Amino acid sequence: MKKISLFIVFTFVLQASDIVIEKATMQSFGKQLRVNAKIVQLSNQRQQIVSRLGGHLETYYVEPGQTVKRGGKIAKIQSLELSKMTADYLALGKKIEAVRERLASTKKLYEKGLASKQDLNREQIALAGVEADRNALASQLRSLGIDPGRLKSATDTLIIHAHADGLVSRLLVPLHTNVSAETPIVSLVQKSGYYAVAYIGVKEALKMPEKVEGRLYIGDESFSCRYLYLMPKVDEETQRAQMLFWIESSDKPLLLNAFAEMDIDLPPYEKRVAVKRSALTMFEGEWVVFVPKAGEGHEKHEHEGHEEHDEHGEEDEEHHHEEVPFETRVVEIIASFGDFAAVKGIEPGVAYVADGVYFVKSMMLKSELGGHGH
């Protein structure tokens, strides 16, 4: 039986890092309503990336479902229009040099009285005009993501960049297609723009208060939702009213038009003792939470166990059973919302196992088997 005792202690040491202890708190719980909801995105949260110049679509640097950052590369286009723009910009640079030389010569002649003021003004105006044309082209090139100062030769390669963070929804144009200016090539959705439309009966919707909390469930994950407003028309197919919620947890990409379940928490709200839902487990046919044993009681019991072991070898089994430093507390589940459940059977401020319940339960079962096995 000493081997069993050592095994239990060793197992606890390995699993202790996975066990999280928290304290029961008082939280507000209201009337629970479970409804269906659809994940949507408002039109102002969807964007289309366009090619500002016509050309041949050569390469995509992204694919559907990929997250992109603002300024990230989206696609490459070979554009004859860009080739002409860059060639014109370089030509204007050469022209400016020539006009400046001519202006310098005219200025010298003017100072010597060999050229008129009108001649000097004409050359100054010519230089200003050429510089204005080049500055305009430089501005256009910068808006296309091209640094004019680095241009050494004409280029027809246009790289399309993302103008915002988002998720690539669709590639709108096949590769090796000739596109015209302002043609949308990629559809982008903003990850922060996910909403849920909850479907609810018309009578219930008309009585809906302003303060409403929602929790959306998708598989094993849940997302907190903030109620925005009741939409002005019912869904034509279901004839249900539609409540719009903003999904606050929006770091992860969600699937648009997917259906999920939503819990809506309605008034009146009551303060109740709350524990994490992850703390609840069935043990010997009852809902329980695990709580740490009182230190003094544990030490006393352990001391008594040693004395009994000296006299009766069989009672060593019960001592090993008590080595698990947790005990069960039977609770009654009253309500639940989000990550928490309202329970009876435990007082606020009492420490309990919030995470790692599986390990505690496993230790207790092993202890019981050790206490009754041979």
UniProtKB/TrEMBL annotation:
InterPro entries: MFP_Cation_Efflux (IPR051909). Keywords: Transport. PANTHER family: CATION EFFLUX SYSTEM PROTEIN CUSB, SLR6042 PROTEIN. The keyword Flavoprotein does not apply. Residues 298-323 are annotated as: Disordered. Signal peptide: none annotated. This is RND efflux pump membrane fusion protein barrel-sandwich domain-containing protein. Coiled coil: none annotated. It comes from Hydrogenimonas cancrithermarum. It comes from the Bacteria.
